[in-house]
Write a structure and sequence with these properties.
214 residues, alpha/beta, 6-stranded mixed β-sheet, 7 helices, 6 strands
Length: 214
Amino acid sequence: MTTIQSATEPGLLPKLHDPELLIFIRHGQTDWNAEGRMQGQRDIPLNRIGELQATGNGERLGAFFERENIDPATLDFVSSPLGRTRATMERLRQAMGLEVATYRLEDQLKEITFGDWEGFTLEDLADDEQDKLLHRKSDKWGFVPPKGESYRMLAERIGVWLKTVDRPSVVVSHGGVYRVLRGLLEGLDTVTVPRLDVPQDKVFVWRNSRFEEV
């Protein structure tokens, strides 16, 4: 497997794959998102805003398929197994008039885990974890939270999955996953990747070797 550099060693991520069509949607908002809590792999449900975002993304995706004359039945629908991603997938499929449960789960698409920090805000940790927070600020790519996962580690995991994508796909996953996925598709640098913005009310379409928002 390709070794992915730490952000302390400036460099670009390898472009691992160039799928024909890969559509990515982040799960809708949860209360922990709204509160700035590190969510990671904790199974926090969508809030009302998140439910509306998921339905809205389904409407956007359905309109895109209609404009581009794409039959959804020809795509592989794949979700992270966490509850918020499954709920998002089911709402967007419902909005497109598709059978709600016809999709598959992929364990490798789980969010980056923050380990012992899950459930806390950065402000909560400011007094007891100051040294670690400074380390994180200086090297967000390589930093590993206590019992957690770094972006570098996440990129290795997502890279393994990405190289298996062999048909047009719709993926519902998480913000951290999109960041490293985009980094691996575009060959971005490891300082930029952890800071990429990932709105929860957008559909990201990879085709012709670039991302577009719909």
